[in-house]
């Protein structure tokens, strides 16, 4: 399970970095989105990769913390997803405005196909 998750995170991060280095702004936005997915998966995996375990300790019982999932990474990832959607929406609005003003979506603004 861990090797599959590690390969998935690596593939997302590698694809995201490759797209961020592309000259078109839409590809940069998609690359940033893939990078955020990779980072979210990495943070989520820090809360232990266990299935069928309760997320928090119940009150009044003594429990072994090794048998429970950590809720903090889950909360951080949920917050990061919401912020990521808002940032992507802002990037897309700026992309559409830039394309409307310059007539191209290239980062350098020359309009050449590279």
How does the SSE layout of this entry go?
Layout: H1 2-20, H2 25-45, H3 71-102
Any descriptors?
114 residues, mainly alpha
Q: Explain this structure to me?
A:
By secondary structure, the chain is mainly alpha-helical. The protein is 63% helix and 0% strand. The chain has helices at 2-20, 25-45, 71-102.
Estimate what percentage of residues fall within beta strands. under 5%
Structural class: mainly alpha
Query: What would the principal axes of the Cα set say about the shape?
Result: elongated
* Total number of helices: 3
Number of strands: 0
Tell me about the largest β-sheet.
none
User: Helix content range of the residues, please?
Assistant: 55-70%
Task: Give a short synopsis of this structure.
The chain has 114 residues and is mostly helical. It contains three helices and no strands.
């Amino acid at each position: 399970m861990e090797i599959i998750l590690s390969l998935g995170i690596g593939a997302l991060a590698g694809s995201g970095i490759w797209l961020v280095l592309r000259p078109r702004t839409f590809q940069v936005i998609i690359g940033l989105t893939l990078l955020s997915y990779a980072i979210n998966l990495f943070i989520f995996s820090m809360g232990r990769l266990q299935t069928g375990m309760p997320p928090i300790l119940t009150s009044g019982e003594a429990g072994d913390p090794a048998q429970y999932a950590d809720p903090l990474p889950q909360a951080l990832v949920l917050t990061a997803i919401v912020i990521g959607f808002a940032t992507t929406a802002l990037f897309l609005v700026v992309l559409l405005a830039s394309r409307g003003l310059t007539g191209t979506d290239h980062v350098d603004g020359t309009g050449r196909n590279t």
